[in-house]
Amino acid sequence: MKNITRTNLSLITIIFLTSNLLMAQMVKTKPKTMIKENPHLAVYKQAKMYGDVGTVISSLNYLIVSEPVKYKTYADTLAEAYLNAGYYGQCNNLASILLTESPEKESLQVLKATALRQLQINSLAAEMYQKLYLNTKKYRYGLELIQLQLGLQRLAECELTIGELLKQDIKDSEKIAVPKKDRQSTQEVTVKSFIYYVQGLAYNLAKNNEKAIKSFEKALESDKTFELATASIDALKAPKEDTTKAEADIKK
């Protein structure tokens, strides 16, 4: 009798343990509850895939408003979308607001600087690019800055920035696209060549033709194919009477 009882107890124990094992397995294999994606985020992803710029901007606005805290970081994406769509005013406005919270964020500074330049608010654009260049020493920001300083005829500032750029170790493999002599097409020249070219333009504006020619020649030393540099030297070296005649022909 004792043996039967023990057998029954063992059987019950086995059944109990087996049941627990099966229950545990069922819990593991229970299908997970699907988390629904924010519909505005889904629309944004789809519109981005299709290249639908208008819907990208619209969906991003709705997305940010729907859950401001969760999707706060998408405000940067929206500012970039404005810029890429050519909505420079909206990009500048949004980037300015975001910069009040993150004043040192490089990507936002670039968006604002680029938008300001496209809006031809060159004085403020120069301030932004100067800040970017001073903080990062990235020569690309310096290139934007010297062009703005030249256009604003801040020649002393332009020369200082050029001096800083020429001190940097910029490899000859680094190129920049510039217009050709015909102004209808472009060519790639070395960054250093372009810096010397801008220096030549600055000297020319300052009426220092001798220094201007030397800078244009240095531009050609760095890149012999630079058409604008060659044309600038030819123009400065042209006999005065030829220049007067050319100006008279233009006026006819």
UniProtKB/TrEMBL annotation:
<dbReference type="InterPro" id="IPR011990">
    <property type="entry name" value="TPR-like_helical_dom_sf"/>
</dbReference>
<keyword id="KW-0802">TPR repeat</keyword>
<dbReference type="InterPro" id="IPR019734">
    <property type="entry name" value="TPR_rpt"/>
</dbReference>
<feature type="repeat" description="TPR">
    <location>
        <begin position="193"/>
        <end position="226"/>
    </location>
</feature>
<protein>
    <recommendedName>
        <fullName>Tetratricopeptide repeat protein</fullName>
    </recommendedName>
</protein>
